[in-house]
Amino acid sequence: MLSDAAAIFNRLEPARRRLAQRADELLDLQIAIASVPAPTGDEGARAAFMAAKLAEALPNVDIDAAGNVVGRLPASRDGEAPVVLCAHLDTVFPHGTDLSVRRDGPRVSAPGIGDNARGLVALIALAEELSNGFSLARSVVFAATTGEEGAGDLRGARHLFGALGDDIQAVIALDGPGDTRIVTEALGVRRMRARIQGPGGHSWGAFGVVNPVHVAGAITVDLAGLKLPAEPRVTVSVNRIGGGSSINAIPEQAWLEVEVRSIRAAELERWEMAVDARMRHVVERANAARPDGTAPLTLTSERIGQRPSGAMDPAHPLVAMAREATAIVGRTAELAAASTDANVPMSRGVPAIAIGAGGRGGDTHTLREWYDHTESSLGLARALTIVAAAASA
Fold it and tell me: Less crowded by CB within 10 Å, the N or C end of the chain?
């Protein structure tokens, strides 16, 4: 399926040298990308920025119906399954977030500077190098996708791979910094929102009626005590909770949002049902203990997000190539599970991995997020080798 990593790596020597020489220039571009707001669901400004940059290297760059920026580098052979290289546009930070960058030597700090400004700058850099006279047997689709974070529910990736179909040679998702991790297991997610409604009333005069906020808290404690399997690993967490209208009023409504994660679809289904059953049990218990003559609570729950799961065989040629490319740049590969754009193709049986795009980072999804571009070109060289090997087969 894939060409020899060492041979491809050697062919890429001029490109690797240019990427190393351009490290500071690419960091400046990464900072420029991070400075363009891109909250999930409102990525238009950053999409326009990326479209302009990719159009300097690729023909016919477009923005599709999902807001993805998509361009294609033509192949020397027609009709071959393409290789897809993607990186998500969106961040977890809302409009109004201060995106100014703070520099400290090779380290820069700003919201989204690593996740995923690093993946996006790598997308541009690899498009530039692969279009610079490097002959490929297969076309390479370059895509900057929407809706990867939070409630985006992989909207951009779903649309992209729905349009491309399953006849794809390989998918490589560039997600954040790093040059060791290879995501081979797609961490599936089920997200639920529960609403608890009751009679409400004055905090003194109506005291004793069942309190939706109290019950939301009891549900949270109950779910925190679940005995979850370690293999296959499952996580259940209440990540948002709220309700009420005034400090001196028993609320009429409370809500909470619960997330279940696993790499196994069957476990996701099982524990989503278990969470719903536990929530209803807590509400029933509260209703059974309420004073006579008072109205009961009601609970409604709905699924608000679903990310598909999947896994790559560690012996698959794409994974083997990624491990070999990691070793060639002097790093030790680490296979991992994560929720990325690669979830979508992996769940459809399309060979897919997610990797970092070089450098180091930390405090992701916080205002303290940082990125260090020391030896960052190694991650670009690794990514370039994997993509070129897949597209040369």
Answer: N
DSSP 8-state class, residue 137: S
Q: What is the CATH number of the domain that holds 313?
A: 3.40.630.10
CB within 8 Å of 38: residues ≥ 6 apart: 45, 46, 47, 89, 90, 91, 112
DSSP state letters, 346-375: HHTT--EEEE--SSEEESTTSTT-EEE-TT
Query: Cα 26 to the chain's mean position, in Å?
Result: 22
Percent helix, strand, coil in the chain (nearest 5)? Answer: 35, 25, 40
Say yes or no: 258 and 272 in one domain: yes
* Bridge partners for 182 per DSSP: 335, 355
| Cα radius of gyration (the chain) | 24
CB 57, CB 128: distance < 8 Å:
yes
Full residue range of the structural domain in which residue 363 is found: 5-187+309-392
> What is the per-residue pLDDT across 117-131, written as a single tens digit (0 to 9) for each?
999 999 999 999 999
Return the structure tokens found at 230. Answer: 């370690």
* Residue 155 sits in the same domain as residue 243: no
Q: In degrees rounded to 5, what are phi and psi of residue 72?
A: -135, 135
Residue range 316-334: mean pLDDT, rounded: 97
Number of structural domains found in the chain: 2
User: Which ranges constitute the DSSP H helices of 212-264?
Assistant: 212-224
Q: Which residues of 52-81 are buried (b: 16+ CB within 10 A; e: fewer)?
A: ebbeebbeebebbebbbbbbbbebeeeebb
Does 268 lie in the same domain as 126? Answer: no
Shared domain check, 169 and 95? yes
| 159, 64 Cβ separation under 8 angstroms | yes
- Cβ atoms 118, 177 nearer than 8 A: yes
Clarify whether residues 197 and 169 are in a common domain: no
Residue 19, pLDDT > 60, answer yes
Final residue in a domain of this structure, among 307, 324, 352:
307
- From 307, 322, 343, the end of a domain falls on 307
Strands 83-88, 170-174: pairing kind? parallel
Q: What is the pLDDT of residues 248-305, one digit of tens each?
A: 999 999 999 999 999 999 999 999 999 999 999 999 999 999 999 999 999 999 999 9
d(CA 386, CA 3): 9
Crossing angle of the two packed helices 13-21 and 376-392, in degrees rounded to 10 = 150
Same domain, 154 and 102: yes
Given a contact cutoff of 8 angstroms between Cβ atoms, the answer to whether 274 and 190 are in contact is no
